Amino acid sequence: MPFFSYIDTIDTTCQGGRYKGVKEINSMDTDKSFATATKVANNPGLIARLQSVPGQIWMVLAMLSFAAGNVYDQAATQNINRPHPLVAATIQAIPVFLYGLLGYLIFVRPNLARKISVETAEIKAERRKGWMLFAIAGVFTQIGTAAFFQALIVSQFQGLNITLPFVQTWELMAILMGAFFLKEKPTWTLYVGMVIMVCGLAGVAIATHAQEDPFKSPNWYWAIPFGLAAAFCWATAAILARVGMQKGVNPFGGLGVQYFVGGIAAAALLWILDIIQGQDNLSQVVKLDGQVLLYVIGGAVINGILATGFLTFALRVAPAYKVLPINAVYPALAVLLGWLFLGDKNRPELWAFLALLVVAGGLIFTQVGPYLLEKKSGVRSQESE
Questions:
Q1: In angstroms, rounded to a whole number, what is the distance separating the alpha carbons of residues 136 and 265?
Q2: What digits encode the pLDDT tens for the residues 300-344?
Q3: pLDDT for 128-153, tens place per residue?
């Protein structure tokens, strides 16, 4: 799940929020982090050159990365030595935690002493609350990751076809949570987009149920509640992380805490389940098959680091409404990549694939709608003048 998309996905579908997410990211320590990075690299023009690349190109790279990362996850669940969902969640937290920690130590830590010396006790207290929110977000993040892997497992070779459309609803859930808990005001385009997405999701389920595929799992329908559970957990984590950053937590530090706590929480839950069920799944963390381990870690690196980085640059150099719709179609691309690279067993049913495109269309409408409304209102104001 993209970390930096938390803010922008929520705000771009709320009144007056088309640029708000980008401004919030730019107003935090990220700018100082990038400035420090260029000094460390002794190349002051590096970031400027990267930011000169069009945002659409960065978002295409993010879309390709998200799709490829999901294919890695699917490949791990199709292996005979597939990991327990909580094992996968524990392992995937490690590289993202290390990335956040490294970014914090290199880009943030050098300026931290000067910043803390001028802060009031109230600011420090707010930041402590922010760290706590990131820790809680980590628990939801990795529980959601475990639910995502469970959805892939129960749907077997049709995992991406069924699971991704329902998991993708996390963005809409985050928007609704932002409206309910943070008192944001969604536009009517959000509700229209939701109706379109629900129709598409129903189409995915109906088409999957109707198809006669010898590789279709008899328990495929369990992928729907597990996928929605993953979406709910990730949406909750999105809200918590957003509020945590508003309280002054640096994105790199927050990312490290989120995945450190999340990995420990996933491992602890697995340990408790092992005791209750008399099993030893926790040992998979260190005994997992080498190829499966590569798939699990690869999915984490591609999704949690590469795609996040590309997405961050896209949102830094271009308005969100111009780039986020590109990312909305990545589930369809992931399904195609799964078919191409994982074999005919993963072939998407035509009607299910078309329904998946309807889901993407609904999500795109929620992103582009606010821009169209603003443009239309601008034309009306000019006509009245």
A1: 10
A2: 999 888 987 787 777 677 766 666 667 777 777 777 777 777 765
A3: 999 999 999 999 999 999 999 999 88
